[in-house]
C-alpha cells in the first residue's frame, strides 16, 4: 500500500519548504548570468510542459479505476502548466498574465490543500508537488527574473485573468455535465479537505470562489503593476 498523505502534516510541510527552496534556487540561478538564465528558464518550461505526462506516468503506478478526471488534461492546474511553459518560452503577454495570476492565486491554494491521498516517497506525491511548484515557480520567474510587469491601469490584467478563468469554469461545467467529471471542482467539492469546505454548498461555493479570486488578483497586481 502507498503511504498516506495528510494535509498540514510534517510530510506536507517539508514538501512545501522543499518546493519554495527549489523556486528560490532557480530564481537565483536565473539572475546570476544570461547563460544561467536560459538554463533556469528551460528547466522550468520543461517541468511545466511535461507536467501532465510525468503526472500520468506516476499515477499509472497506483491501482485505481481510471476516470475522465485523470485521463484528460482539463484541470485548471493542467492548463496552467501548459500556459506557464509557453509563457516562459514565448514571452506572450496574455500567457504571462494568466501564469502570474492563476499561478499565485489558484495553484498556491492547491499546494495549501493538496487533492491527493498518497504520500512520500511515492512518485504520484513527487509528481503532484513538482507539477504545482513548477507553475508557481514560473509565476515568480516572470516578474523577478524576466522583468514582466502588469499593465496599467492596475485592474486591467486582473480583469483579463478573471475573464479567462470564467471562460474556463463555464467550459469545465459543460464538460462535467457531459462526462460526469469534476474538472475545476465545479460539479462538487474535492474529497480532500480544502478551502471550498468553508464556502457553503454547491453552487454557493462557486460564487465565493469568484469573490476570492477577484480579491486575490487585485492584491497580486499591486507589487508588479507598471510604474508611470
Compact summary:
This protein is mainly α. Helices cover about 65% and strands about 0% of the residues. It is globular.
Description:
It contains nine helices and no strands. With 228 residues, it is an all-alpha fold. Helix 2 (34-49) crosses helix 7 (123-144), helix 5 (76-90) packs across helix 7 (123-144) and helix 8 (156-179) packs antiparallel against helix 9. The mean pLDDT is 92. The chain has helices spanning 10-32, 34-49, 51-59, 68-71, 76-90, 93-112, 123-144, 156-179, 204-221. It has one domain (10-221).
Q: How are the SSEs ordered, and which strands pair?
A:
Elements: H1 10-32, H2 34-49, H3 51-59, H4 68-71, H5 76-90, H6 93-112, H7 123-144, H8 156-179, H9 204-221
Helix pairs in contact: 1-2, 1-7, 2-5, 2-7, 3-7, 5-6, 5-7, 6-7, 6-8, 6-9, 8-9
